Amino acid sequence: MSVSLLRYAESRLPTAHAEFRVVVYRTGEPSGPGASALGGDREEHVAMVMGDVSGDDVLTRVHSSCFTGEVMGSRRCDCRAQLDAALERIAREGRGVLVYLVQEGRGIGLGNKIRAYALQDQGHDTVDANLQLGFDADLRSYDLAAGILRDLGVRSVRLMTNNPGKIAGLDKAGVRVSAHVPHWVEVTEENAEYLEAKKTRMGHIR
């Protein structure tokens, strides 16, 4: 898939973890179906950069937006904890990049994610809920993340993830994953079933 990508703005961004360089990318004309992160018109995505990330073996997290967890503080998922852990780890190492993509609900969008939550409340797991709504278990694309990493000069990554599909997706998009860095965070009573489904139904690994 061809994605039109423009480095639109950048500045320093002090955070609770350290000061990063924030780079905002804009995509161009729509290039495919899907809720988001497919290069659609007027989308904006972000890279949080620390140090010189050109070259190989760059500590990297490709992170999908989660309005419910990261903004509203939902405890149904581990997204906010994973985001904080990735930024903290990059700050500690002093070199790395976090690519933040707008692909809510594994690519189905916010409204459909809330519909999936309602199905989960009726006893379906996170995979079956998406399938019942007529979507694949995971609709995310990593072509845009690959384009951002290439623009930053990243040649290969040590990828913070538990998702083998993300490793395969980046590899397919042309980004070499030189190492897998497990990225598990604390399990809570509210997200335990969700995380278990990601392991048993989606193959998430340690």
Task: Give a quick summary of the entry.
The chain has helices at residues 67-71, 79-93, 104-107, 110-121, 126-132, 143-151, 164-172, 192-202; strands at residues 5-14, 19-27, 44-50, 58-64, 96-101, 156-160, 176-181. With 206 residues, the chain is an alpha/beta fold. β1 and β2 form a beta hairpin.
Task: Explain this structure.
By secondary structure, the chain is an alpha/beta fold. It has a single domain, classed as GTP cyclohydrolase II (Rossmann fold, 3-Layer(aba) Sandwich). Helices cover 35% and strands 24% of the residues. It has helices at 67-71, 79-93, 104-107, 110-121, 126-132, 143-151, 164-172, 192-202, and strands at 5-14, 19-27, 44-50, 58-64, 96-101, 156-160, 176-181. Strands 1-2-3-5-4-6-7 form a 7-stranded mixed β-sheet, sandwiched between helices. Strand 1 and strand 2 form a beta hairpin. It is globular. The model is unreliable at 30-39 (pLDDT under 50).
